[in-house]
Amino acid sequence: MPTDARPMSKKRSFVRDGIFYAELNALLTRELAEEGYAGVQVRNNPMRTDIIIRATKTQNVLGVEGRRIRELTSVVQKKFGFAPKKVELYAEKVPNRGLCAQAQAESLRYKLLGGLAVRRACYGVLRFVMEAGAKGCEVVVSGKLRAQRAKVMKFKEGYMIKTGEAADDYVDSAVRHVMMRQGVLGVKVSIMLPHDPTGREGVKKPLSDIVTVIEPKDDSMLPVPANPKPVPGLAMAPAVPEKTDVPMAPQAPMEVDPAMYSGEKLA
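Now predict its structure.
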C-alpha cells in the first residue's frame, strides 16, 4: 500500500489497510469476474508491496505475454498512488475450484444471467461442490425470482456449522449481486471445508468437538533381578519370614485361681 512520510497511529493504520484491501478487492472483482476471481492477498515488504491474485483461470489473468497483468499493475499503481516499481501483481491458481465460494458464486451468477432456472442452477452448484470433497454447502438466492413478490430460496446439503470459532475457520462464504431484468437478485454461497492435516485441500486445524480415542498400551512387567545389589546409604527392609505348615507344639493349660473371680479379698 502507499506509504506516507507522516507518523500515523495504529488505529489509523489499521483503518487505512482495511480501506485499501476493500477497494482493491472491489476493483479486481469487477475486472476479473470472467476469469474466476477468488480473492486477493496483500504482502507488505520493505522494498515493495506484493499483491497475489487468486483465480481459477490464471492464464486469462496474465494475458498474452503478460499484457493483462501489466495493465492491472498500472491501474493499481495510479489508483492507489504507488511509486514506480513499488507494487507487483502475481497470479495464483486455485487448487480446487469446488471448494472456493467466490468462484462458485461467480459461476452461479453467470448461470442466472444466461437464463438458467434458479432451482436447476443452484442444484448444479450443490452437486459440484459436494463432489469436490466439501462437508456441506448452502446456496441462498433472494429477490424477484418469478413473480413480482420477492422471496428467498435456500438449498442445503451436507453438514454446516453456523456459529462459533469453527464457523470462522471452516466456512467459506461469498455474496454476489445479479442484475436481472426484473430486479436485483442476491446470491450467497457457503461451503463447509473438509479437514486436511496438510492444509492443501482443507483446514489444517481439526474441529474442537472431534474426540480421538487412543488405545492403551500393553502393560509389560519389568524384570526383577534375582540378587539385587545394595545401594549405599539405603537400609534394606527386613525379610519377611515365609509361612510354613509345620504344626506348633501343644502348650499346657494355664491354672486359674478361683479366688480372683469369687469377689473375696485375699489376706
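The chain has a mean pLDDT of 83.
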